[in-house]
């Protein structure tokens, strides 16, 4: 089905009151929403799943309020799904991944104004390093550049060379090489920023376009995270590094211990909820997470939650919103109609590992 045909179908369904009907039918089921950073500049055009417009985010949140959705804390939601407490109708959890500075500067103020709680799943290594996230910034520069080919010299043996930028695999390879080179500077903020500025210059992307001073490619500081926590945003686990070690439960537990220790070291409460990096998980997750005292984990598989008992709590479905999602599609998803369509067409994915 084409996008336009899909939107026409959803528009007709909404006009006929189908969305309202499904909100009533599914009001006892939990929804979890996922966002990442906000857009300070044109980041949402570069990566609309990673950076989201404040204006669109505000439109989404106000629609939830107008339609009777009740935004609750993740902790309360998980307890309700486990049958440990009652849940309000259309209970919804707002979550953010990673820890981008723009999450706090662009998106969280919207929730503050609406008195809505939220959860931030924090990847702690980038907070401790305090440098721009190399792979995201490098790929942005490549995306922003209008060059068809480029010759790089004076970087590192692995980076120097000629690149035909018209080929997507070449652009990806260049992004990986430059990111690895910049990551070699560790927590040296000046060296990392200078390296990105040099790469941008060679790619004919101006400093004004790169806007490193806006912190658009950086995470929040410990002080900013503590302020966020005081405003009603729970800081939870997203790993110390942004990678899920499939098939290696020992590595998973070590990564989460480092993440938890780092969060507590920043003066924040002990975290007990986890979000799989990039939605990657395996069959080892429930045992490993349970041994660490983690009580829930979210995926990037869309769906509604009727209950979350035992291992179900470690594979909670969550809808990843983004620039590519039209408001009509968002309404259909949150009303429960999209999940109904996935089930009747056999396209519903089980959030549980199989």
Describe this structure as you would to a colleague.
- By secondary structure, the protein is of the alpha/beta class.
- The chain has helices spanning 3-15, 18-25, 43-46, 54-66, 74-81, 101-114, 124-129, 134-144, 168-183, 189-202, 207-210, 222-230, 249-265, 285-291, 327-335, 337-344, and strands at residues 31-35, 37-38, 51-52, 70-71, 91-98, 118-122, 149-152, 161-164, 233-237, 273-275, 296-298, 319-320.
- The protein folds into two domains: 3-128 and 219-344, TIM Barrel; 132-214.
- The chain is built from 16 helices and twelve strands.
- The longest helix has 17 residues, at 249-265.
- The mean pLDDT is 95.
| Class per helix and strand makeup | alpha/beta
- Our estimate of the beta-strand percent is 5-15%
Overall geometry = globular
CATH topology-level name of the largest domain: TIM Barrel
CATH architecture of the largest domain: Alpha-Beta Barrel
Q: What is the mean predicted local confidence, pLDDT?
A: 95
What is the tally of beta strands?
12
Radius of gyration: 21 Å
CATH class of the largest domain: Alpha Beta
* N to C succession of SSEs: HHEEHEHEHEHEHHEEHHHHEHEHEEHH
Estimate percent helicity.
40-55%
Unreliable residue runs: none
> Main sheet, how many strands, which sense, barrel?
6 strands, parallel
């Amino acid at each position: 089905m084409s996008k336009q045909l899909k939107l026409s179908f959803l528009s007709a369904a909404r006009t006929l009151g189908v969305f309202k009907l499904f909100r009533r039918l599914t009001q006892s089921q939990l929804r979890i929403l996922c966002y990442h950073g906000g857009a300070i500049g044109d980041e949402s055009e570069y990566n609309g799943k990673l950076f989201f417009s404040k204006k669109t985010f505000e439109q989404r949140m106000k629609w939830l309020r107008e339609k009777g959705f009740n935004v609750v804390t993740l902790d309360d939601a998980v307890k309700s799904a486990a049958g440990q407490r009652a849940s309000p109708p259309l209970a919804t959890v707002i979550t953010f991944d990673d820890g981008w500075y723009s999450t706090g500067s662009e998106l969280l103020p919207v929730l503050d104004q609406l008195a809505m709680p939220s959860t931030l799943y924090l990847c702690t290594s980038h907070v401790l390093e305090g440098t721009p996230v190399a792979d995201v910034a490098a790929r942005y520069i490549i995306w922003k550049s209008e060059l068809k080919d480029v010759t790089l010299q004076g970087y590192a043996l692995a980076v120097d060379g000629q690149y035909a930028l018209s080929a997507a695999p070449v652009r990806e390879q260049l992004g990986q090489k430059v990111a690895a080179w910049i990551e070699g500077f560790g927590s040296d903020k000046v060296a990392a920023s200078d390296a990105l500025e040099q790469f941008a210059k060679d790619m004919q992307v101006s400093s004004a376009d790169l806007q490193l001073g806006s912190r658009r490619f950086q995470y929040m500081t410990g002080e900013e995270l503590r302020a966020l926590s005081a405003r009603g945003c729970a800081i939870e686990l997203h790993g110390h590094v942004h990678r899920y070690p499939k098939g290696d439960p020992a590595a998973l537990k070590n990564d989460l211990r480092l993440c938890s220790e780092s969060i507590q070291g920043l003066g924040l409460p002990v975290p007990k909820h986890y979000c799989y990096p990039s939605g990657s998980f395996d069959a080892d997750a429930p045992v490993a997470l349970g041994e660490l005292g983690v009580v829930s984990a979210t995926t990037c598989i869309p769906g509604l939650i009727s209950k979350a008992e035992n291992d179900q709590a470690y594979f909670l479905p969550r809808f990843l919103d983004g620039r590519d999602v039209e408001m009509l599609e968002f309404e259909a998803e949150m009303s429960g109609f999209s999940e109904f369509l996935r089930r009747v067409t056999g396209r519903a994915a089980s959030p549980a590992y199989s």
